[in-house]
Amino acid sequence: MTTTEDAAADDGGHGAGAHVGYMQRKDDYLRRLRRIEGQARGLQRMVEEEAYCIDILTQVSATTRALQNVALGLVEEHLAHCVADAVATGGPEADAKVREASEAIARLVRS
């Protein structure tokens, strides 16, 4: 494989500098993920301080929901941009993008 092919394989085949569907909302996603990171640190603190189990579980549930909302947003963006563009173009890439999206959704449902 050439260096260009290596780079494409490493980034999921999008190519260096390729536009990804969530770019218009990137700052929003980063803000939400930073908040989730803070929630995870808070959970660690709660365990260190031996907080009540139900209080910890409540925070775990809130953190899980926040991550699921990020995931659902990313799936929506992927379908609206990456998959829709590939389907409009047609060919084997369209089939691959649809399969890739289906597999990602299946992983989310199983978790």
From TrEMBL:
Primary localization: cytoplasm
The keyword Lyase belongs to this UniProt entry's keyword annotation: no
Disordered, as annotated region: 1-20
Record-level Gene Ontology MF annotations: DNA-binding transcription repressor activity; metal ion binding; transcription cis-regulatory region binding
Coiled coil residues, start to end: none
Gene3D superfamilies: Metal-sensitive repressor, helix protomer
Record key words, sorted: Copper, Cytoplasm, DNA-binding, Metal-binding, Repressor, Transcription, Transcription regulation
Taxonomy, superkingdom: Bacteria
Signal peptide: none
Alphabetical list of InterPro entries matching this protein: Metal_Tscrpt_repr, Metal_Tscrpt_repr_sf
Compartments where found: Cytoplasm
Annotated GO CC locations: cytoplasm; protein-DNA complex
PANTHER family: COPPER-SENSING TRANSCRIPTIONAL REPRESSOR RICR (PTHR33677:SF3), TRANSCRIPTIONAL REPRESSOR FRMR-RELATED (PTHR33677)
Family: Belongs to the CsoR family.
The protein's name in its UniProt record: DNA-binding FrmR family transcriptional regulator
Organism of derivation: Pseudokineococcus lusitanus
